[in-house]
Amino acid sequence: KVSVINNQTGALREATSGDDGTATFAALSLTGSYTVSVSKAGFGSEERNDVTLRAGPDRQAYMLLPVIPKK
Length: 71
Fold this sequence. Notes:
Layout: E1 2-6, E2 12-15, E3 33-39, E4 45-52
Antiparallel strand pairs: 1-2, 1-3, 3-4
């Protein structure tokens, strides 16, 4: 699961990543910054704060999730 929160408005968008691990969010506001969170069952999670967007090419955030050992 990938979540994107606009830090100024609190608007939340969520998506499920594809088999290749990518998720796309169209038409995000260029105003303000975002917090991007990624999680998956059996793995840990990662969060990036203060991600800013600019007009132009797609913005990509590469995130690695640690594997949670089975108990």
